[in-house]
From TrEMBL:
The chain crosses the membrane at residues 35-55, 88-110, 116-135. Its main location: membrane. The keyword Chloroplast does not apply. The keyword Glycoprotein does not apply. Keywords: Cell membrane, Membrane, Transmembrane, Transmembrane helix. Residues 204-287 form the Mechanosensitive ion channel MscS C-terminal domain. It is found in: Cell membrane. This is Mechanosensitive ion channel family protein. It is a multi-pass membrane protein. Residues 134-197 form the Mechanosensitive ion channel MscS domain. Residues 91-132 form the Mechanosensitive ion channel transmembrane helices 2/3 domain.
Amino acid sequence: MLSNILVQEALTENTNAIHHFYSQLVETFMSPKTWNQILIGLIKILLILLLGKIVKAVTRRLVDRLVREREKNPLRFSQRRAKTLGKLVGNVVNYTVNFILILMILSQLGLHLGPLLAGAGVVGLAIGFGAQSLVKDVITGFFIIFEDQFAVGDTVQIGSYKGTVEEIGLRVTRIASWTGEVYIIPNGLITQVTNYSMRNSLSVVDIVLSYHSDVDKAIFYLKEAFAEMTDNQLLVARPEVLGMQTMGMSDLTLRIVAECKPNQEEQVKREILAQVKKTLDQHKIEIAMPA
């Protein structure tokens, strides 16, 4: 009997507590003061986000202006390097502004940032000991940029990956191949790079003629044809016929070279082959048939 009374009292106390909590909750949400605080908080958050966008836009324009001023300076960076540094600074600014915005929004939500920052510092220190690869990626990224190893827009080969550099970030480098694949490579793994865009390229074309062809005649007409290739924007200098490269049992090989703009040797080679075929056919000079 006594136990039933105790259970009944406990149920009554729980019911009263739930009713009291529900009443306070309804009173809180029905209060105009609560909705005013929520509205003011939302307005502040929107203003913070708007301020962040303005800061990013102003900083981006400032960086672009500094890059343009640097290009006018006698000690200016190359256009490649300036473009890459601009992208890197833009990434750093975005990360920094986003971090500050998150802290300001958390402050508006009523969270105390002091203990949060102190805890984040301890966690960051612990992560730093275990994130040596991340530190290595960041340091390597800075050295890549300041040593001008490669820049955005360059065609490079990193290990087995070849393509055009789309972005050099704080942690990774992104390159796109000519077939559309995008490779994302951690900077710390970049140990050897081949850059195809820093200097002019050399296109080498070998033409195999029949053994009985008149070599002097072929060289004369090819030089005459190449002299007219002056309007090709890919060429630095017109193609040059070096002469006979090899002499086989049934064929002769002429070598043609052409200095062209960086990474344009394949396109130039195609144009040279087309011109060679047209010239040799026009003057009845026989090309060797495959064995």
